[in-house]
């Protein structure tokens, strides 16, 4: 989702049509909102994970990083937040209603940065910022605390990076300042 939005931003600066990417961005973002994320915008590590069946109607309530069946992936949520926010702006600039994507992006970001929630590390001795990131579940490379069945509590470099990028994006937009892009040109 984020990759599509960023590429659309770049192609727009070059006045190159991006209709196919735009449709792909809408489709993947709609899937994320409607099927991949829990009600708070946070996904479990894989939309086809077998343990999701044990969680019942998981997508109608907030994700639970402490469940015994499947880990959540906060790093994927941070990346999704930025993609949704950027797509919301793109849709609006093209004359559409981008609120669906912007609101979903804000919901995800708000969930991640809530200092009373389970995702933002407030422990000064923890080396990460964003808790409950998944590194490589199929290979068993994620830390599973003693007595638990699924990993939780760890951070990743990419999760921390994308959380900061999403927060900086929102800050710059709120200030009316140009936001940063991967290609070096400031956005609108």
What does this structure look like?
By secondary structure, this protein is an all-alpha fold. It has helices at residues 2-13, 19-36, 74-93, 99-113, 157-175. It has one domain (2-175): Alpha/alpha barrel (Glycosyltransferase), CATH 1.50.10.10. The longest helix has 20 residues, at 74-93.
Q: Measured on Cα atoms, how large is the radius of gyration? A: 17 Å
Helix fraction bin: 40-55%
N-C termini distance:
20 Å
Put simply, the count of helices is: 5
The CATH topology name reads Glycosyltransferase
Structural class: mainly alpha
Question: What is the total tally of β strands?
Answer: 0
Runs in which pLDDT lies below 50 for 5 or more consecutive residues are none
CATH class label: Mainly Alpha
Helix and strand string, N-terminal first? HHHHH
* Integer average pLDDT: 95
Strand percentage:
under 5%
The figure for the number of domains is: 1
What characterizes the major β-sheet? none
CATH architecture: Alpha/alpha barrel
